[in-house]
Each structure stands twice: as C-alpha cells, then as structure tokens.
Amino acid sequence: MSSETLKQRIITVDALRGFALLGILLAHMIYWYNAGPLPGSIFEKHNDTASGIIGIVNEILISGKFFAFFSFLFGLSFFLQMNSMEESGRPFVWRYAWRITIMGIIGLIHHAFWRGDILSIYAPLGFILLPMRKLSNRAVLIIGVLLAINLPSLLMQLPGLIEQLTSTTPPPPPPSGPPPGPDPSQAFFKTVYKSDIWSMMKNNIISIGEKFDFQFGSGRIYVTLGFFLLGMYSGRKGWFAMSSEALKPIFKKIKNKSGWVVLVTLLGGVGIYGLNEGFKLGWESSPLVGFIFGTLYNLNNAALVVFYVTGITLLMNRKFWQNLLYPLAPIGKMALTSYLLQTALGLVLFFGFGFGLVGVTAPWLNWLIALAFFILQAIACKWWFKKFYFGPVEWLWRSLTYFKIQPFRKKQASA
Q1: How far, rounded to the nearest angstrom, does the alpha carbon of residue 331 sit from its chain's CA centroid?
Q2: Quick check: is 174 in a domain?
Q3: Segments forming the whole domain that contains residue 301
Q4: DSSP state, 243?
Q5: Do 355 and 279 fall within a single domain?
Q6: Per residue in 286-324, pLDDT tens?
Q7: CA distance 341 to 345
Q8: Distances, alpha carbon 330 to alpha carbons 21, 24, 27, 308, 368, in Å
Q9: What is the pLDDT of residues 332-386, one digit of tens each?
Q10: Structural domain includes residue 211
Q11: Cα separation, 239 vs 230, whole angstroms
Q12: SS3 assignment, position 409
C-alpha cells in the first residue's frame, strides 16, 4: 500500500467516525439526552410542525442507525489494529484484551453519569471478537448479516407468534387504562433528571442490569455485534486499503443493493401504517402484522447503515465532497473524547444539576444546538491536533494500554 493510499484510508475512516458521532449526537439531543422512558406530557408540549418534522426525520434516518454505524467502524478498527500488530510481530490478544478492559472501565464510569453509555456494551462484545477472528470470511459475513438484521430477536418472537396464531382461545382485550403501580416514566424522570448528581449516579450504577435487559430485549446487542463482524469483514477484504478506483465498483454495487432494500422496506412499513390508519383495520393489535413490521424495520435499519457507510465513502473519493467531509476527520480521530464531551453537553443542558432544560427546549431547537456544538467540536479538534498527538482521553487510554506515558504535546518548530 502506498503512503498516499494509507493516508487517505486513515482520513476516510476518521471522517466516517466523525460522521457517526454527528448522528449519535443528533439522536441523543433531540429528546433531551434521555436514556429511558419520559412522561408523555413532556412530548405533548412540543407538537409544533417543526418538532414533528424533526421527529419523523430522526425516526427514519437517525434513530437506531448510528450506534450500528459506529459499531461497524469499531469492527474495522479491531481488524486494522490486529493486522498491524501481527504483521510487526507484536502480541495482539493480551494487549487488545487489556485495552478493551480499560475501555470497559471508562464505560462504567460514563454509565454512572449517563445510562445511555455504549462503551460498557462494546467492552464485553469486544472480547467476543477475539475467538471470532478465527472464523472464515464467509462465516464472518453470514453471521454478521444475520445479527445485523436482528434475526435472534425475530426468532425468539416466533414461538409466541405461532401460539397466538394457532390458539382457538381469543386473546384478552388490551387494558383500557394505565398499568397498576407507579408509572416507570415518572420514576425515571424523578430519579434521573430531577435528583442531585450523587443520587443520580447511584441510581444509574444500580440500574446497569436494566441496560442489558434493554439491549437483549430490543436486540440492539445482536445488531452491535453483527456490525462489529461486518466491519471486521470489510477490513479482511482490504476495502479501505484499496485505491479509490479499485474500491469504487465494489462499494457502488453494495450501495445500490442496500439502497433498494432501504426503499422497499420503507415503502412496506409506510404502506402498512397508511392502510391501518386509513381503513381502521386494527392492525396495531395484530401479532402477525407487528412481526412483519418489525422485520421490515430491522431490515431497513441495517440496510441504511450499509448505505451510509458505502455512500459516504464513495463521496469522499470526490474532490468536492472531500472538502466538506474531510473536516470531520479530526473529531473522528478524537472520537472517545468527543463522545464523552457530547454527554457532558447533554448533562449540563438537560439534567437537574445543570440548567434543567428537559422538556423545555423543543426538539428542533435541540438539533440546532447539537449542530452548533458539533461544528465547535470539529474546529476545536482541528486546532488540538496542531499541538497534540492524541485527544486527552485517547492519550490516557493509550498510556494505560502500553503501561508507558505516551508522547502528548507536539514539539513546536523553532523560529
């Protein structure tokens, strides 16, 4: 690989990571950095047109997509690190295991401040990649695709679906009122958004099991691992090590196929919703229609992530788009620090020990704030790398990984 190709690959991967961070920030900011159920009354205050449009855009293009996008890049980075260390004769397994352990500790600290932390999910899944790296390319691809479309969750729903469809006993009518007992959304709102920081942290630590319950219940943990594997597969195939001319036909083909899946599944989901609303078919209580809708949703999410990765990579091989997208590279290079700073923004703006703006600012305004903050992050990261080799958290992580203080500040050229 030429030095020019290597440089472009590094910038491309960093820019993709920066784009993923933008999507993650938008997904979290729109509804006040919530990581649990919020009372419906908070959402009812923001039924204006702008918030409605932003909500639809978020649901179709953002929500549930960018954690998977970032997972793909994690899997790709796993392969690139493994390949680099093995080619140079350095031990990989124990070094990587220690590196992942440190990331998990950072994730647990982050979780204490915010339940939506993803690092504490990445860490245990990162260990699973170690034995899976021995699988063939074909096995990695097949398992990755099946997990990325959330097949385990769909299969776990099948027994109950079959039982409901074959049962001669009519299902009980849905409850007409709220479930008995305390409202979980009110409890979450009180303990997370309205308590002091120490009480909130204690509650977050105690509730870590609920995070994993959600991950398995929603299937997100399977999707994350699936995109880990797809990222590793792309690294094995050398796609991000190719010249732009060699990569273009491969990614163009994948982009087109994934784009068709996105379109067909989106039309299918919208069609089901439109028919049900227009003709009052009562499909919202049908387990079969719910299963079909869920399948379309999972296929759409996975295909859209693939479309994003391939489409943006192709754009970054064009001069015009390079000028727009390459500025994302510094923030992607400092992804861990940037991710934690985004959480700090959400905590300061929306939580009780900060400005307490949960439910006060409209979703559309939250997005404007997010975009402004992201632009400032990108500018700050570009300035930072003129003076430093690593982001501050990345430097700490790297120093702990190698049990040695790493170079941090760049030496300024003498006048």
Answers
A1: 16
A2: no
A3: 259-317
A4: -
A5: no
A6: 888 989 999 999 999 999 999 999 999 999 888 888 888
A7: 6
A8: 12, 17, 21, 20, 21
A9: 999 999 999 999 999 999 999 999 999 999 999 999 999 999 999 999 999 999 9
A10: yes
A11: 12
A12: strand
